[in-house]
Amino acid sequence: MAPAHYALYIEARKSDGSHDGHTLLRLGSYTQTRHAQQDGDRLTAALDGRETTIAPGYRITMRFGPLNVSDHELFTDPHETDIVALLNAAVANVRG
To answer: For 2, left (φ over 0), alpha (ψ -120 to 50), or beta?
Structure first.
């Protein structure tokens, strides 16, 4: 059986409740859920309550989900990468 593919999606959503926003970062592919969960835990710790203040006007959220392999070029390979640095760079782009 072929391995499953998982991803982390980091999104910036308008904090006005409009659900407007965009995806900042797509991390994947993970072939084991525990690896995705570990990276998700590291990103959550890096945000540490700053989800609404790190990019004014936005709430930074993260979700775990399946990776559509046909969209693999949209994803950043998380292996041997400093994912916290990737998060910081993505958020800096939102702040302009």
So the answer is: beta
